[in-house]
Design goal:
mainly alpha, 14 helices, about 85% helix, globular
Amino acid sequence: MWKVITANTIYQVFGKGFSLAAGTLTIALVARSLGTSGFGDYILITTVPALLYLLADFGLNAIFLREVARDDGHLRKFSSLLGLRLILAAVFFLLGAIYVFFSPYGGLIKLGILLGLLTVFSQAVFTSLNALFQHNLRYDLSVLAGILSASFGVILIVLGFLRGGGLLFFVGVWVLTAFLLTSLAFLFARRLREGPLFSWEGVWMRRLFILALPLGITLLFSQINGKADVFLLSLLDTSESIGIYGLAYKVFANLLVLPLFFVNALYPVMLRDRRKSLSLLWRRLREGVLAMFLVSLVLTLLTVVFAPLAIRVLGGEGFESSALVLRLLSLGLPLFFVTAPLQWFLITLGRERILPLIYGVAALSNVGINLVFIPQFSYFASIFATIFSEMVIFVLLLAVVVKLWIIRPRR
């Protein structure tokens, strides 16, 4: 089974490698086109919709897959999953629009955010389709959709750079690429052995929402934890600071997708392990944590060494300070990598009700540190808040897992 897990992780890594190359070129061209301040505005515009992605996600895929593992008949209820997520997307779209209306940002930034908010709907559909790719362990199809759409986006970005495209042009390309990704993913999902079937079941939709509520709240706190820095920097500091910090965080965030890809492939296998025996599940957890820890050490070392080169390639002149930011952020990679399998282990056991408390404490500490220290230390406060809050998550998750180990059935 590790062969299947590894293959699907490699598919995702390959796809991310391609999108990373495309994203690197995109960031380099956009940063050079817009400058430090303009790039800061671009980061802010794209961060607001991204904040809502996981909120619209609401943890529904995890619960859907767990139910499917118990009863494959639930696959016919895919439309309930999709319908519920689209309803959540509409709610969060409206909340995002209200936030934009009352925000202190300029008219161009507000227009850009409103345009970007449309991607909340495309992301809702794509995330739902990924539940089918994950269940079928066919991430190769999802990756192919990503490669094709990213290629299209890069072509438009290059044309925009050559023709002097402005802020709204680059935001528009981002939105168009997102909708193309969803369209391609839907076409490829039709090829799955257990593809999308449509039959409206309102009762199960409500049950799915209730079951996913702890994870939904967890994702809310997780997004606050991950995005508070950019929002508070935009209110308490300058666009230049957002640009310097945002460029480094873009690189850092790309590294954080590796544990996500790993647990995407690991979770369906953990569900099957759980059905067989708890001892097999515990062994899978130990192996997963060790693998992630070793990989994180290698990536931390590489990031520390090559951060100046990466920033120079991405941002060019004016972004030199981002190299130090990236180096400092990379010191937290082992925490982020190890918490991923710990979190999904608890979800596999149906212990997700503890997660909102853990991530709520982390989000509160993150926001508090940023609010108090940004006026004095600028983005260095955000760096510390990012690492410290993830340390809080790791310690609390580990405490719960150790407790479960102590009280586990002896057999």
